[in-house]
Every structure is written in C-alpha cells, then in structure tokens.
Design goal:
Blueprint (H helix, E strand, L loop, with lengths): L14 E4 L9 H7 L4 E5 L9 E6 L3 E6 L8 E7 L4 E7 L1 H9 L1 H12 L9 H27 L10 H14 L3 H4 L24 E3 L6 E2 L10 E2 L1 E3 L4 E2 L8 H5 L4
Antiparallel strand pairs: 1-4, 2-3, 3-4, 5-6, 7-10, 8-9, 10-11
Helix pairs in contact: 3-4
Organism: Aphis craccivora (Cowpea aphid)
Protein name: PiggyBac transposable element-derived protein domain-containing protein
InterPro entries: PGBD
C-alpha cells in the first residue's frame, strides 16, 4: 500500500489480503491452539495522521489482512461447521473480515468458480484464451444468479444444480435445439464435401455442365469417396458432382430433395 496512492485524507481507502508477510505476528500453530476466531493485530506509527493495521485472523486457516482505515473493529458472532464435533459452533469474526467479504469477497468467489471447471484449450493465442475465460466468467455469474433465483423460489437444496451440471446443461441446450437440417450431418468430414439441402433447389431443370477449370474439383456428394474429383457440376445448384461411366453422383444427390 503506497501512501501516495491510498490515503484516507484523499478518500482512498485500502483493504487487502496478504499472501505472506515479513513482519512478526503470532505463529499459525499458536493461533490454532487458541481456537477458531482468534486474532492478532499490530498498528504502525502514524505518518501524516495515517497508520496501517495488519491483522491475522484464524478460522480454518490463518488469514492475513491489512488496511489503512480500519483494524479489528467490532466483533460479530458467526456460526461455523466443526468437522470434529459435527455441529455448528459460534466464533468471533472481525469487522474488517466482514467488510472484505462484503466488498471484495465476490471477486475471489468468481475466481474460485472459474478455476474449478476452467475451459481447457491447447492454443496459446491470447485472444482465444480471453474468449474462453469470458465464457467461463459468464457461466459462473449465471450460476450464482441461478442460485439466488432458486433461493427466492424456495427450491430445495438437493434439487438445485451444481456448477458442473449447470455448465453441462448450458452446453447441451444449443445442441438440443438444433434444426433437423443440420443435426444429421457427419461432423467427421468437412462441410465443403457435403451436399447442402438448402442449396439444392427443389425445382427441376438440374442440368449438368462441364467447367473450364485447370484442376478438377472434389465431388460434393457425401457418399462419394474423397479421392473422386470432377469437372462436372450442376448449373442450377453450382455444385460439383461426379458424372461418369463408373459413378453418377449427380443422380444420387437428387435423392436429398
């Protein structure tokens, strides 16, 4: 925390969690023996009527937090689940912890949800990674909104979807609503090798013609081998189709109509 960037007199208040600290605070083992809800704090000497407080609060694990406008504050009784006794116990929570959870805790929650089921891609392009991260963020926020709506509608906890099944349902929704014209396509072959049913005109006058290209074009009949190339195409549909003594893809393709 820099005095030039966060100063209460300037209306800039700072509250942050510290991953590691170099100053002396009570060891974690000592706080663990004293029990959950135990805290220890130190306050720096005032400089320009401003001081910094650093606290360590022990819940399931120690939390180091620092602020330039509040220290421990008022204590609040909260309930926490105890694995040993298998029941809820009351512990004391500092006001600074409550303020952090209220204002900044949501950011940590979103990061945790995104990291739980992050979309994995092999590409190292920053644009693709940003896009997938944005999708993951949208899914996490939608799931939190879904939980709020379920709570308002008084849906039972065992009937609400967790994040994994919620994400799967979102992914399957477009597939379930896919149009019949595209649901039966073979995805293992490229789209340019298939006869488009929309492109095939349902009227008559399908006339074969021969192009003047230097190299033959791949046949667009999905039942035709990928090795077959032809100069013959349908003038009406503008699709290249085999028409020879061995194969007649031109006739077979009209079966789609």
């Amino acid at each position: 925390m820099g005095m030039y960037y966060s100063w209460p007199k300037l209306g800039l208040f700072d509250l942050t969690v510290l991953q590691s600290i170099l100053i002396y605070l009570l060891p974690d083992k000592v706080l663990a023996k004293m029990g959950r809800g135990t805290s220890f704090e130190i306050i720096s000497i005032k400089y320009n009527d401003c001081s910094v407080g650093i606290l360590k609060w022990y819940d399931n694990k120690p939390v180091n937090i620092a602020s330039n406008f509040i220290t421990s504050g008022n204590l609040v009784k909260i309930k926490r689940w105890d694995k040993k006794t298998k029941q809820y116990v009351e512990i004391e929570r500092l006001e600074i912890i409550s303020l952090y959870n209220k204002s900044i805790g949501g950011v940590d929650k979103i990061d945790q949800l995104i990291s739980t089921y992050r979309t994995f891609i092999k590409s190292k392009k920053s644009t693709l990674r940003l896009i997938t991260h944005a999708f993951d963020m949208v899914v996490a926020n939608c799931w939190l909104q879904y939980l709020e709506d379920a709570n308002l509608l008084k849906v039972q906890k065992n009937k609400t979807l967790d994040l994994l099944y919620f994400s799967l349902q979102l992914a399957n929704e477009p597939l379930n609503n896919a149009s019949p014209s595209t649901s039966g396509l073979n995805l293992s072959r490229s789209s340019d090798s298939k006869v488009s049913r929309q492109k095939l005109n349902r009227t008559d006058n399908h006339i074969p013609a021969v192009d003047r290209l230097k190299n033959p074009t791949k046949c667009k009949n999905p039942e035709c081998s990928r090795k077959h190339r032809t100069h013959t195409f349908c003038e009406k549909c503008d699709l290249h189709l085999c028409l020879s003594s061995d194969r007649n893809c031109f006739k077979e393709s009209l079966k789609f109509l």
